[in-house]
């Protein structure tokens, strides 16, 4: 018994001494919620880290530190030198890159994040038109910028027009054959952050931009719409009328013919929605028909245009290649890339307005 | 001249010498009455004997002129058994248990022993540790006879067997082992009888002495025998096939073999309907795991794994901790110790003062230490809740074990965060798996997995679904009751 | 030769289910997907099924031999090959068991080092872990089985957490089915069988069952359960990762957890790793128990002493395996040995044993 106790004590002391691990005590860290990277000439990046300073009275102040360095990881280390507490990136919510950097390629930055086990898969990446430093340095309301950006983007993905995107989905698209990644594009507008549109990538490089008006169409083709709103304008009898329509859901079906020779892709898109606002006098059966027609026209026109542009730039953000791949045995990626440029892609749209709100305007 | 001891030389001893020796004690009464028709010597311990019995039932018969010898006296006295003996050992033992010795000559080597012990026992009162709102409200007292009476009343069957032992070289404590023949497992009975028979100790003050000495693993922080103050619980487990140990002078009965989950079953669970009882048990088990794990997890997460904290919670945690100079581990240890201190102080003080201490300590110290910036208010809530949760265990001793094993978890959490907690858990798991209670596995019915016994473990299913005795107890008579289904499943409106 | 054991040390045959399952599920589960997917990509789930089926055949063979012998591997060896050659083969098996236990422990510590504590030394954690292993094994086979049981039941809740990644998965990743050659499939089956290793320990603990013949059913069920678990994990992994993404992910299972988010906890992989301490406990306990049991049977030494020696050896060995390459090499070495032992040696032994018993009967 005595021997056992002595053995136990010695083991505990040895283990406690040699087994020590570096501590990361919550309140002794600067926990970055957002990081921004700006292109600063050849091989140079300016990195900005945002971390909330949580005061004892529970208010949050937005603090930023930035530094210029070569690689992203190195930049973060150099920021550490400027901070009085170690900066940790385990709670990074949003990472933004400025457009110049995105056009130059963000492969290295993605790789660093991918390699780091402390980066979560729900990290949201975004591209900024202008300087990411400027966006991050501003404070918005009661939150720090990282939280604010994350909340802004997440809710717009859930019930808005931004296609769902996070670090995992980016990587999936990045590594997928027959698909190219997309990221939301933001801009600073006065004191607010604006969703400018979508940055479309070819591999690690941004090659194209899609404006905000087209996001409704894009999202309907990219995934399912959930409560996304769209505004329609029509001129009738010299009177401009506005519709505001909220998509309740959307469904798409792919039909691909001639997979092995010359694939022709037919997309059947069905959007169900409701009228939220109408500037005209009465909502009746004809108005509904009108709205349906208008929306159908808008989506058909935009999607055809959009896909043409994609084909021209040889990018495939909609994952059409993926659709073809999953229907082909021994799919050849090279061959598809050749075919894609001139592939026939048709979008057939069907719009159904089911609800008109709680006011019955039918008469 | 020495006291009578086993093995001492018989020749030196005579009854006269023994009595002379007893008279050295201030409370020993030894007097001669030469006036009575037949002169007699009477001797007894005044502190052990009920004077009323002596005056009412013994002395008047000694005055009777018809009595001429011990046999006459024996038949005259209206007391169940008057023993005439010359065995010194018996005489000493009986007199020390409250018998009166009557001699008709001081030099006689024999005498008549009349039982006249004083029975000053506490009245049977309401259970305090295992109080339940519904159900019987009797609890054991210090007197073994009363306790046996409380049990026999509930089990009026001849099969209820009681084996008595005397344990303790100095205390001479009566220990009774109770079981129901043909229901309790033979092997279990033998284990208990043998372990109690082998006990060597000078003094047994309470049943917990026995519990510690006969339990399978003395080095375990977990109690391996349930102690209860409720006769109804005892009757209940006897009928299941358990063995019960009662100790004179102790208001707690010991129940074994037992399992870990039984420590979380309150007797009240059987008095309320099964859905409610099951819900309460689940709550209890949850609160126990909460109590063990919550402070270590707090320390682990705040020291090593900030990534785990959801963002919205982060602000609360950081702001509560931002002014605190201590690392989370020390903060937690200090608070845990404070709570233990309050509990200990409350337990040692008289009830009324104890309550005040609890309130003063809890509120004043808690609030003040948060305001002074010594502890964070989040941790204060956590520690207080954990302490509260540990009190939900129906068996008091288990609650203590729960509070104790929290500290190794805390240490390992400080060392290796969540990995440390998992390692502590691995140790705990191994320990519990190795534990036995009277040779039966402690973790049953979890391991070995026994579905039949799980019906009354984490949840309690209705009585009619449990017609069998627990497999754990290995009863030779496995069926508890058999009866046809009272209600057949009927169709609607039939 | 019959191996006789006292009734009180025997376990119920139904526990065979947990013994086999807990031994098969180990550190390998954290990252088995990419090795299989490297060859057959979206068809990996078929591989899982085929490999599981082959294991059933081997189990049947082992039971055939053991039922006849009513003993363990050591007695089979002795009656087939005689005392010296048989003993040498049993000794080799013992070395394999020690290496197996050590590899599992070292690989798990590597996971801790990569994901949680880069600074932690190998030996203190190995020491503490093996002390708990010693404590458990010292309780006898019943306690070891108990750990196997709880090591399966307690972490079972983790199964549900794998449903979270489905939010971001693409079911088309599974298509087209059967898009790989038979050769590729066969090679991947070989890789996959390594994940099923661990059931061969039956050869040692067989005599510990009450009515051992009846345990075969449960043993098969256990393997079936492992198969379903692998299938479940594989399917989720395949729909969540695109093949090229998966090939770059060393610990796919852990990466799956990165997406889990509860209101009270984020980044589930840390909890997953901590839970894995309990999951691999049966692995290590059973391996070292079997090794020390073999030592006892071979050299007639006290099992406690043999166990102490083996564990000491393991504690000393772990720090010498320094980096990813070495661990990987040891891992493949041990699993190669296991593979050839099971698919090469056991069928040979099966035939030899039957010939020898026939010869003996005639003689």
UniProtKB/TrEMBL annotation, chain A:
Where it mainly occurs, coarsely classed, is membrane
Q: Do you know which Pfam families this protein is assigned to?
A: Spore_GerAC, Spore_GerAC_N
InterPro entries xref list? GerAC_N, Spore_GerAC-like, Spore_GerAC-like_C, Spore_GerAC_C_sf
Residue ranges constituting the Spore germination protein N-terminal domain according to the UniProt record:
24-187
**Membrane topology according to the record:** Lipid-anchor
Gene3D superfamilies linked to this entry: Nutrient germinant receptor protein C, domain 3
**Cell location:** Membrane
Which controlled-vocabulary keywords does the entry list? Germination, Lipoprotein, Membrane, Palmitate, Signal
Domain Spore germination GerAC-like C-terminal positions: 196-357
Q: Which family does it belong to?
A: Belongs to the GerABKC lipoprotein family.
The protein in question is named Ger(X)C family spore germination protein
Q: Which organism is it from?
A: Fictibacillus barbaricus
Q: What is the lineage of its organism?
A: Bacteria, Bacillati, Bacillota, Bacilli, Bacillales
UniProtKB/TrEMBL annotation, chain B:
Q: Which domain of life is it from?
A: Bacteria
InterPro entries found in the cross-reference section: Spore_Ger, UPF0353/GerABKA_families
Q: Where are the transmembrane segments?
A: 282-304, 354-372, 378-396, 408-433
Q: Name one Pfam family in it.
A: GerA
Q: Which UniProt keywords apply?
A: Membrane, Transmembrane, Transmembrane helix
Say which family it is in. Answer: Belongs to the GerABKA family.
Protein name, UniProt field = Spore germination protein
State the organism of origin.
Answer: Fictibacillus barbaricus
TrEMBL record, chain C:
How does the record say this protein sits in the membrane? Multi-pass membrane protein
Residue ranges spanning the membrane: these are 9-32, 44-63, 84-109, 115-137, 144-165, 185-206, 218-241, 270-292, 304-321, 337-356
Where mainly found? membrane
Q: Which Pfam families match?
A: Spore_permease
Keyword Transmembrane belongs to the record = yes
| InterPro entries found in the cross-reference section | Spore_GerAB
Say if the entry is tagged with keyword Transmembrane helix.
Answer: yes
Which UniProt keywords are given for this protein, alphabetically ordered?
Germination, Membrane, Transmembrane, Transmembrane helix, Transport
**Cell compartments where the protein resides:** Membrane
PANTHER family noted in UniProt: SPORE GERMINATION PROTEIN A2
Question: What's this protein's family per the entry?
Answer: Belongs to the amino acid-polyamine-organocation (APC) superfamily. Spore germination protein (SGP) (TC 2.A.3.9) family.
What's the protein called, per UniProt?
A: GerAB/ArcD/ProY family transporter
